[in-house]
Amino acid sequence: MRHFSIMLLLGSLFAYPVFESPAYAQDDEDWLDDFEEEEEDDEAFERGDEGDSEIDMDSDPENIEEEESLEGDEAGEESDFLDEDSDIEADEIGGEGVDNAKLYRATLNRVREMGYEEELINWERYLERYPNTLFRQLINERMEALTAEAYGERIDELGGKIVDAGRAELDFNVPMHLESIDPRTRIRAGFEMGFPDFIAFNVDYEQQIARELSVHGALQGRYMGLAAIAGGKYALIKSARTKSILTGMVDLMLNDLTSAAEGTSSYAAIRPMIGFGQRFDVAEGLDVQVQAGAEVELRGRVIYSGGFNAFMRLNDRVGAFIESSSNLKRGVEQSASNDRPFAFNVFTVGMRFQPGSGEDTRFAVNTNVPYANNYWGHHFGAIQGEYRKLLD
To answer: Which of 53, 74, 102, 108 makes the best surface tag, with the fewest CB within 10 Å?
Structure first.
């Protein structure tokens, strides 16, 4: 019994430091405290009290944490329009209305998963807050891309305006002998010199009333003599998205003013026409159009007219075109022995130039060759030139 008591006493002495060691007890308390703190953090995270990395644009941007602003960078997710070669330091301090790289990158991370409309709104607010931002060019490019996504395909018009492609101007080619099917505000002036003894001048002013509607007045040297023309055109279809145009045209004409000056009477006519054009993605753009109509003289004769034009932009300044125009009517050549009507068809080959002085100014030169004709009274061929100026 004595031996058992001694052994129990010795065991207690050795066991006491193990169960009552101050160091062990302290470690146990720290571990418990850490565990409780982790539980509190988890509960706070679940409640959304912490860990929210969204940036409130209305809050003070100086409170944005650096870890938050670089979150996307650590993941290797750079924005497509972020200038990686920028030498602007992340901690650079700007003046009034000036941001820095940290603020810009933080906003990038914030809008990364947003829809295009929401992201566009956020960039607009960003520019309002930082009008002198160091990244304005990048932001403007991004906003243009977002606008295109929000409103459909968009194109860059003359002058750099970005508009809805369904409402943008087409800048469709103007033929030489046919009518322009694109309602625009423009002026045209030109001449035609034929061999052996034909010369004619023309001038035409067109005023756009609406995008699809225009009126015009012209003096044209024609095969039937000088004519005064007034009329209008309306584009039933005019879309830069589909790159197509369908236009109806009506002109009132007073023909043969040259003969009237010599003492004979001129005559009036009405000319309804319809034209369709389509642009194809060939080279810098291929414009193809066809037109058909009739010139109804009030004295009873009908002249059928029409043709086609194909114009290819070779580069920003130069284009080439081919054209065919036809006039067909009952005339003096038609008799009991000759059933052929009056026919005068012209094939045209030419080039159009756009000088560097202005994108709205064009010059066109061409040569005309008659074919399949039964009337050769005017010329066997001609040269032609025209000046055009868009005024809208």
So the answer is: 74
Same domain, 315 and 365: yes
- Give the tokens for residue 52: 């929210």
Across all residues in the chain, what is the average pLDDT?
75
Cα 100 to its chain centre, rounded Å, is 32
Tokens representing residue 330 in the block: 């009952």
**Residues 143 and 228 both lie in one domain:** no
- Structurally, the chain folds into a number of domains equal to 3
Q: Give the tens place of pLDDT for each residue, 321-362.
A: 999 999 887 655 555 555 566 778 899 999 999 987 567 899
Q: Which amino acid is at 364?
A: A
Same structural domain, 21 and 77: no
One-letter-per-residue 3-state SS of 13-60: HHHHHHHHCHHHHHHHHHHHHHHHHHHHHHHHHHHCCCCCCCCCCCCC
Instruction: Provide CB contacts within 8 A for 103, sequence distance 6+.
Output: 61, 64, 69, 130
What pLDDT digit, counting tens, does each position of 43-52 carry?
Answer: 444 444 444 4
C-alpha–C-alpha distance, residues 157 and 172, integer Å: 12
Instruction: Look at residue 158 and tell me if it is in a domain.
Output: no
> Would you call 233 exposed, middle or buried from its count of C-beta atoms within 10 A (0-12, 13-18, 19+)?
buried
Domain boundary among 151, 173, 194: 151
Half-sphere exposure of 119 (CA within 13 A, CB side): 21
Most confident of 72-76, 83-87, 155-159, 283-287: 283-287
Question: In the predicted model, is pLDDT for residue 233 greater than 50?
Answer: yes
Mean pLDDT of 269-276: 96
Residue (of 304, 247, 223) closest to 271 by Cα position:
304
Q: What are the counts of helices (DSSP H) followed by strands (DSSP E) for the chain?
A: 8, 14
Element (H, E) at 1: none
Report the distance separating Cα 235 and Cα 308, nearest Å. 18
Res 35 pLDDT > 50: no
User: Do the beta carbons of residue 79 and residue 117 sit within 8 Å?
Assistant: no
The pLDDT score that the predictor gives to residue 157 is 52
Distance in angstroms between the alpha carbons of the first and the last residue of the chain: 121
Instruction: Indicate whether 6 pLDDT > 80.
Output: no
On the question of pLDDT at 76 being above 60, the answer is: no
E strand or H helix at 358, and its extent? Answer: none
CA dihedral 16, 21, 24, 30 (to 10 degrees): 130
